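note to self — DONT lose this again. spent like an hour looking for the file last time. sequence + predicted structure for the chain T wanted, 213 res
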Amino acid sequence: MKKWECTVCGYIHEGEEPPDECPVCSADKSMFVEVVEEAAPGESTTGQTAESKPAPMVQPSFLLKAYTLASEQIVKHHLHPIMVHTPNGILPMALVFLLITAFFGLPLFETAAFYSLVFVLISMPLVLFTGYEVWQKRYRGTMTSIFKVKIAASIVTVILLFTLIIWRVVQPDITTTASNGRWVFLFLSFVLVGAVGGAGHMGGKLVFGNRKN
């Protein structure tokens, strides 16, 4: 029976034909290649002669070496799944604090929520960078529906973080004073949590596929 490998995520499918869609990363059928056995040792697969010389290698710069090393460590040690726990864990807590402030008038919770938003914003460059590296190295930068959702959710997250933080700086009492603006602020906070939750859900599909158990 033939084996087909998804060139995006490495999923192996057994059958006469590749699946119409990868069950792990949703890549199209065209992204599958047939897995063939390697040629036996000693067999010549190219027309190279014994006299052919390899092309001279260009030594990479120090910055390129450092970048390559960092990229390899990000993928090897799964740093992106670790980093995404920051927004996925802290932002729901910040939303709860904002709701407590709005309904019970406890300003200390609002202060904690504000600094939580600031901390998440500071961590976002590393979250995005590790995600980009994993996308390029492990999934070859393929733009499937899952990655489109994750990228869109990341953009929405950054925009909303900037919006809420700047709004809070300009109007410090936005959630402690009863007004229409307070409910808009809370609504945007809900959207923010939904965006990071959606990105996390898509990431989970990449890791666990369509498992039922």
